[in-house]
Amino acid sequence: MAPNVSSPPDASSGNDVVSRIYLIRHGDRFDYANPSWLDSAKAHGALVTDPPLSALGHKQATETAEHLRKLASSTAADDNAHHVDHILVSPYLRVIQTACPTSHALGLPLNVEHGLSEAHATPGDVLPSPRERFAYFPQINPGHTSLLNVEPTPGFVCPKTGHPCEAFAGKYCQRMEQFATRLERAYLGKSIVMFSHAASVALVAALLKCSMRTLKFAPCGIYHLERRNEGPWRLVGSGESNDKYVSENTSTTYPWGFSEKHFTEGTAGNYFGSSEGIDLDYFATEGGGAM
């Protein structure tokens, strides 16, 4: 069942422990806006799966940071945006760049979290380490320890780089399932902002225990989830659109969601999941979907 944006719950005991998540997708990609970049990247030995943001992507990130600052401060009694406790980011460049304006707006460092890595993620030292990224992005906290690290799936390689990678979409969804559990434990009672990729709608489904069939993620979309104590998560705001705070979009980086093909094995794209019973309803199999 697809989740609906719910109304705020009735006021409850001041002893309640409230956890909040703001999950944000990166902005417009440079390689999508400038297709010739791919050949240039290959010619110069750049990692083609780690493009930067386009000029529009940087603009979207700045607008999103201002919106998030207002959104976060509106939930704090003292109107202080610093009530957000942590910012977690995928290790990919476009995500780090998207998160930088929010780091400035909230005065918080960026913690590189490998559990938020892109689909077809390549484990190991293919991407620059947080310490290496720090040289160019001083907002990064090099000392953060990830909740989850990506493991390669035997027999699977990234279709763009040829490096060993995690099988998509099945193993990616299982990673999101594990990450959701660790996230809940590690940040109980905290308000966290996370920057990731379109496929992380699977994390939303894992937390809400709902189907992925209708979930979409817009560039710089914001999924806002909350829960009280250790109760179920509820969806406060959907990330399927950014129309309220982003002034411009493009057709190249669009609202994305999973489809059946991403789990059907033996098809173009070397997808994975059906042999292990993983599909669009994977997270809804235990009576999920309610908030």
Would you write up a description of this structure?
The protein is α/β, with parallel strands linked by helices. The chain has a six-stranded mixed beta sheet, with helices on one face. The model is unreliable at 4-11, 78-82 and 287-291 (pLDDT under 50). Helix 3 runs parallel beside helix 4 (93-106) and helix 6 (170-186) packs across helix 7 (201-208). The radius of gyration is 18 Å and the shape is globular. The protein contains seven helices and six strands. The chain has helices at residues 30-33, 37-43, 55-73, 93-106, 130-134, 170-186, 201-208; strands spanning 18-25, 86-89, 110-112, 191-196, 222-228, 234-237. It is 25% helix and 11% strand. A hairpin with a 5-residue loop joins strand 5 (222-228) and strand 6 (234-237).
SSE order and pairing:
Elements: E1 18-25, H1 30-33, H2 37-43, H3 55-73, E2 86-89, H4 93-106, E3 110-112, H5 130-134, H6 170-186, E4 191-196, H7 201-208, E5 222-228, E6 234-237
Helix pairs in contact: 3-4, 6-7
